Amino acid sequence: MVAGVLHPSNLLLHQIRFQSPHTAEDWHSRRFLRKTEEMGLARNGIGLRNVISRHLARESNVSPLPYLPRPWASKSSVSYFSSSNSTHSDSVEKGPDDLIASLRADLKNSMKIKDLTQRDVIKSLLGDLQNSEHNKNRQTHEKVVNSAIKKRLEAAKISLESNPPRLELNKQNLQEVEILKKYLTFFSSSQSAQDSNQEALTKAVNDSIQQLGLSPDATQQERQNSLGKLIKSVKDKVDSNFDSKDIANAVRKALGLC
């Protein structure tokens, strides 16, 4: 390359870094910026330079610039939207190993066929999984998927009970539930395992009631006053993957407050 002449990748990088995607005049700038966003790549100099170099080299029939690694990128910063050939962060509590790979593949396919509903659901689920990584009480992948399903079922119920009923929103939420349900097949939890979890929760509730010394003849006001202490005690006894709402409901049921 002639000295003093910018490689097309560097020139394009300069345009993208200093122009808004909404005002950039160069068609390639907008196109490759969208491409990097689809691939979930951070807009930092080296990462953006590498991907632009590879794609623009194919378009312009030039040799790409040498690949520059990003030595400061830690495992925890690896994006769930990155290439399907990459491995997601080891710091995330793993479910089935191929769940994330399947989500990435489905995301790519939904973008290809322009299935906006599936695309948005998968992006949302990947975001929930990534957020779970940074939470103090990390959830398993199965718990995250179930939580996403539960949230949409509640939204579907609310939309149906509204006045007037929002049928279109109800239909959309139920459609998203069906998309999410197929990812439950990646988990091996059986009905017996769920029954075992329920038994563990019931035992924790009964033990907490005994430890607190709450009499079966306690008044409703006494039971109501002990509700918070019991819920906290049960949370300390059971696995962190139990949903707080399920724990509270189990305690209320045991106290006859439902």
From TrEMBL:
One of its GO terms (molecular function) is carbon-nitrogen ligase activity, with glutamine as amido-N-donor. Gene3D superfamilies: Uncharacterised protein YqeY/AIM41 PF09424, N-terminal domain. GO terms for cellular component: mitochondrion. The keyword Transport does not apply. The keyword Mitochondrion applies. InterPro entries: Asn/Gln_tRNA_amidoTrase-B-like (IPR003789), YqeY/Aim41 (IPR019004), YqeY/Aim41_N (IPR042184). It is found in: Mitochondrion. Keywords: Mitochondrion. Belongs to the AIM41 family. This is Altered inheritance of mitochondria protein 41. It comes from Puccinia graminis f. sp. tritici. The gene is AIM41.
